[in-house]
Amino acid sequence: MFVDKARIFVKSGDGGDGAISFRREKYTPLGGPDGGDGGEGGDVILVVDANMTTLLDFKYKRKYAAERGQNGQGSKCYGKDGKDLYIRVPMGTVIRDVETNKIMADLAHKDDKFVVVKGGRGGKGNVKFCTPTRQAPNFAQPGMPGEERFVNLELKLLADVGLIGFPNVGKSTLLSVSSKARPKIANYHFTTITPNLGVIDVPGITSFVMADIPGIIEGASEGVGLGFEFLRHIERTRLLVHVVDISGSEGREPIEDFLKINEELKKYNIKLWDRPQIVVANKSDMMYDDEAFNKFRDEVKKLGYDNVFKISAATKMGVEDLLKECARVLSTIPVTDIEISEEEKFVPEEKHFTYTIRKEDDTYIIEGTFVDRLLASVNVNEPDSFRYFHKVLKNKGVMAKLEEMGIKDGDMVRLNDFEFEFLK
């Protein structure tokens, strides 16, 4: 089974919490704070495995989570970092963020890797909050939460040459006689429903990879038939070999087929249409004379395509010359990665802890991730910790915002389940 698309859920590890601890020894009953920091959460990393050829594994397992960082401990012991989770993917995998549909990474080379979600930072232990005026802090910082998101994985074949053309024009036969690939071949439309790869290794030329792309039909650029499910596989190819049935055995005109396929390429991606093409008139063994080929060649050359070959894949006539020309043309085309425009590129959002303030009667209610994190950090029932709590509210601009909203002495302020009376 060939699987070229998958959606998975990934979550990095949460950071470990900082410890609240005080040194207690036989002759030092009131030692200072010694709570250690929490460990970092593990990242989730996608890494290329050159031995993988499909995304089939992701049809059976769709959720991946990295290890959480351990909490800090006393005696200034830091928590252990969570282990990174490595997920193997085939070479040629494009990663997209589901929410924005933007491209996060293009893993097109051996050993390429990408951190798809980064682990949360470990929280600071209470020893880090010790100051000359606050020598026994009874609070610590919780670990930062890990990131999580759904991502789409798309596999785009890494082939040098892509065979394109209408169904049943002989692409699979050409691949089978050119390489050791053994695609399914029969005399009906859409025999090929998955791309097939073959390594072309002919004496005297540099070997290259050829892909038999399933037959493209009219409307493919709008998703008709197999549509862009397979059109995207051509994006990585440096050279296109455009195969037509010169015998007209399907009752179609070769030049019309040629024009229709190129129109679909142009609609899907103008860069594909502009890619170098070698035109192949196949099934020439079924013609009585060369009149149809000569007419087709003249028409194609008028369109600017000078590289036209007459072959018979079934009898192997002209195939070796075609392969040698493919190798020659490839030697003139540099290997480049897929171009990702600024509009397509995923830009991660910066993490911010935010809050909102609303008023109900004489109570000002503060809500948001900032509130959750602050309350998890402090013990509001302990004076020293409460002073730190008040300082954070002031530094964050919460107090100034409350005054701007018209809060008066005696009004109540509520943060989740905790309330206090406002005093200037």
Rg from C-alpha positions? 32 Å
Strand content: 15-25%
The CATH first-level class of the largest domain comes to: Alpha Beta
The average pLDDT is: 82
Number of helices: 9
Determine the structural class based on helices, strands and strand pairing.
alpha/beta
SSE string, helix = H, strand = E?
EEEEEEEEEHEEHEHHEHEHEEHHHEE
Overall geometric form: elongated
Task: Outline the low-pLDDT stretches.
Answer: 183-192, 218-228
Distance between the termini: 70 Å
CATH superfamily descriptor of the largest domain:
P-loop containing nucleotide triphosphate hydrolases
What is the number of E strands?
A: 18
How is the main sheet built?
Answer: 6 strands, mixed
- Give me the CATH fold name of the largest domain: Rossmann fold
**Total of domains:** 3
Assembly category: single chain
CATH architecture of the largest domain: 3-Layer(aba) Sandwich
Q: Roughly what percent helix?
A: 10-25%
Strand order of the largest sheet: 10-11-9-12-13-14
